[in-house]
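Why do we bother with holo predictions? Because pocket geometry can differ from the apo form. Keep that in mind while you read this record for FE(4)-NI(1)-S(5) cluster.
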Amino acid sequence: MPEEKKHYSDKASIEAYENAKKDNILTVYDRAEDLRPCPIGSVGDCCKHCGMGPCRIPAPKKEGEKRKAGLCGATAETIAARNFLRMIAAGSASHSDHGRSVAEIFLAAAKGEIPGYKIKDEQKLLALALDFGINIDGKDMKTIAIEVGEKSIAQFGQQHGELLYIKKAPEKRQEIWRKMGVVPRGIDREVVEIMHRTHMGVDQDYKSLMKQGTRAALADGWGGSMLATDLQDIMFGTPVPVYAEVNLGVLKKDQVNIVIHGHEPLLSEMIVVASQDPEIKKYAVAKGATGINIAGICCTANEILMRHGIPIAGNFLQQELAITTGAIDAMVVDVQCVMQALQNVASCFHTKLITTSHQAGITGATAIPFNEHDALNSAKAILKTGIDNFPNRKNVAIPDIKSPMIAGFSHETINYLLGGSFRASYRPLNDNIINGRIRGIAGVVGCNNARTTCDTNHLTLVKELIKNDVIVLTTGCSAIGCGKEGLLTPEAAMEFAGPGLREVCETVGIPPVLHMGACVDNSRILIAATAVVKEGGLGNDISDLPAAGAAPEWMSEKAIAIGQYFVASGVYTIFGGSAFPTTGSPEFTKYLFEDMEKIYGGKWDYTNDPVEMARKMIEHIDKKRKELGIDKAKGRVLFDMADRRELA
Ligand code: NFS
Ligand code: SF4
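The structure, written out:
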């Protein structure tokens, strides 16, 4: 048995977890103690793609012993690669199906078929129309929006040619993809082709398999995810910096607490609107509450945080704990990362678990299917269910702990903040990278994993990076973890950042860790990286940048899809968590961890030690600085007055 590790690192969760324990309520870490991961499956050595298996083929214990193959003869490499591809398929499908839902609502909204949704960011609509090659001359907004909506939906079912977004990548990147034959045709097609090629007895060569894995992952990052982000921004507004609070302490004792959990902002946007309706507020007061408090969990939380400053109750491993406070009157879920254990925990309290997606049936939960044609009333019905439940509360124990944070760093906002309103640009960022005040850029993203202490890998890594003058872009549950720790404030620069990064943060007034949104918003990081390339002076491809990516506590299949599209976009990408899902096959793993770099300029890596992870990322950043010839500029460079004027 490994030594007992701490489960949570933040005080609110520790308190809530101990309370739950006292009441004999078991949550994810208790189950983790009871159920060990399979050592064979966790490293990719098990195939169950046909009825002759599952075939489990761990590496032989004795040296010189021949390794077994599956009944069909599938080797360890093929089995590990097929498993890896199916994770990419599931991850890409999840992000992209989210994107599809958004696109469908977008088109209906553009046509004026669904009241409640409209175009908020016309500027971004026009920019996207141009990206899509739509002629906008003399057309009104409605016509343009309809054309953008139709083109967007067509991206999913397109059978030939290239995804439209591919053209947003640096030229050199596009050439690499074309040369390798991995430019996605249509989003759905690439996912389906993975399922076909990983069926028993089809693709039997890991290099060939990984080509398709890459193509589907690119269809996610430069397809489904990017569409989701852009269309959401156009409908709900492109995020700008916003102040909010995070952690279980955002729940309120005297108000109706409605917690929104999952991933799609389509309904939650409406819930936010509905919660401000005077009639609904009155209804809550009539039931004895002083108001309605909306809070979020996971990526839906990030979506409504970014656009409205709605507080966040917690990240992935806090979902059950939030209910154990006894203060949640309704937890409203849609899709992805919603633990099946929630209903069990909810049944120990008064909490109503409400499932709103026709895609997510949840045994025991209340189903209130979201009807986009009558979105506001759907939202009101959900709120009323929560309000009606408020008087049923019993014991309430909310940890009085929360942290302030600034979120809302879209690519457009960063551009504006750095360059100023007269000439928005990444120039100052590039200059500060070149002169060495900023050593490099890191994307730290992704999940929490109950096989590690919640948030610890993220926080240790992020602190190491900013201490070494690496600016951090963050999304997903990682961003929420950083928020809890106070890293998403400008003050964090004073406390944790190295001298160069601190100076830039102070001058511009930004945190050293920038919250860029939900996991689909990793596409914002791709666009930001491309903007840095296009600004000039740092090479001509993403792979030239002093940049690296990490998912220090990965757990979901979506994380694997994200990892692969970052690698294929030229980024050194390192994962942490209890295991990496291919290490059972050393040859295939070497392909991912070494050979990929020769093809794409980016590669995978893995360590569960966050300090080591930081070291490796910084080493990569320094290598890139050297290749760019900007390694000499390092060291402390003070701002002179001209610099300050330039930045301010
Ligand atoms: Ni990303 Fe967001 Fe969190 Fe992981 Fe799940 S919520 S989409 S998958 S656990 S970061
Ligand atoms: Fe075993 Fe091959 Fe069937 Fe997989 S496909 S379960 S390796 S026989």
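The chain has 25 helices and 16 strands.
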